[in-house]
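We close this part of the discussion by returning to an individual protein. The encoding preserves chain order, so positions in sequence and tokens coincide. The sequence in question and its structure tokens are set out directly beneath this paragraph:

===
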Amino acid sequence: MKKYIHYFLLIFTLGLSAQQVSIQADTTQIRIGEQVLYKIKVNAIENVVFPKFVPDSLAKVELVEALAVDTLKNQLEKKYILTSFDSGSYVIPSQEILINNKRFFTDSLRINVATVPLDTVNQPMFPIKSIRGEEFSLLDYLLNFFDSWVNLLIFIAVLLLLIVAVFVLIYKLRSKKLQRVKVEIPAIQVAMQRLKELDEKDLLKQHKIKRYYSELTDIVRTYLEKDVHIPALELTTDELVETMTDFNESSDLGISKGTIHQLKGVLQTADLVKFAKSAPEIGLIQSDRKVIETVLVDTKEAVAKTEEPSENAQLIERQEVVKKRTNFTVIGLIILGGLLVIGLFAGGYAGYQYIKNNITGKTTLELNTKQWHTSTYGYPAVTISTPEMLRAETIQVPEQLESVIRDMTVYTHGNLISSFYVAVNSTSFIKEVNDFNLDNSVDGAFAQIRASTGYEFYGVTQKTIRNNGVEGRKAIGYYKNDTVEHKVTILIFSTPKGMRQVIISQLKGDKNATAITQRILTSIKINS
């Protein structure tokens, strides 16, 4: 009886689970990479905990995204987006849901993942295209330059030579600058010269007494300002006398009181002339002139006792300033020179490499002696050996040929104006072409080059050739670019499925280029 009760409870529980939770999928049949929308519905809206998605036992079914829970009428719905990248049949196991802390389980779900069928009849297989070369900038060439120890040592040597040259130059300039002392006329000589010039003006004979005293006092005030270092030009007579007295006592300058008293008398007379229109006698004026000269001489003698150490100190200080400035100049010029060398040296090298690799190309001697590469290009395929890997070019199929041509690929090295150029063109047809005219194709190839360069061909010859059982044409033509002659060799091969073309351009008479051309032509293999 207990056994039956147990079975009954189990069946009841399963039935209850089936009623409480359910699953739904928008499809159970997908192809690799397609997605399945997997839903879990719960007939409750409170105290429901949805599971973390449990994948199949082989983990072939992947969870792309778990969406937010949607609330419906008396229901909750959780959506999962699934996918798989392995073909096969996989079972998503039962998912556990908690409702009011009770465990409920969904049904399992089988998903079939199919592969994508390939149509090899109407859609032929194409070979893997060659790697596209990375475009190099000037910075790339600069970095490549410093990868070489030889180049780095050359650069360091040039930089050291520049630094030595700058040091020698600066040393010579500094020596000359230190030796070249700036000649300054002493203030006393300037004052005496001005007195002499004042006498020569004959202002007293012209009765220009006010102007005479103005210049006379300006001479003595200017001197005091330069040699005694007091603001004599800005002070009144009383302020100047008081300042000189105080300065004389505090600095032990040694100017006699008599000299200061005489100066005061002349300055007061000058004030009366300038402001009170006084007219002193000629004798007094001449006496004042002599007093000023005496004041200048006495003051200079007093200043000279303390001037020599100060001048020496100033000279030393001046020389130190010159040294510091020179040192800063040396450092600045070294840095500037180093940067200039780096810019010129590396920029010149990078520019040369950029032009050589992108415009003129390497020399034919370099191409002939370097390691060659053998690769297969395009579909229908062409196997060829070249000194440089050919780079894929983007070609747009002309509109008028879209009904005939399925695909067109071009791989090149160099360009038509460089010393050496090679191009491989492979064209596949949509439908088989059994009456392809090789002669017209040769003419069309020369016409296309003529349109690109603007030069007319001469001496064109062609002959029938075969390569791996495929018929073709070999044509040789010449054109003259200014004073340089170019030789162009064209090979064209045709099968019902496609056409292959090889173009080689070189300088006529270049032995290395001729050897390269011959080696390339010998290596060509047309894959049937």
User: Anything to note?
Assistant: The first helix runs from residue 2 to 20. The first strand starts at residue 21 and ends at 25. The mean pLDDT is 78. The CA atoms of residues 369 and 455 lie 31 Å apart.
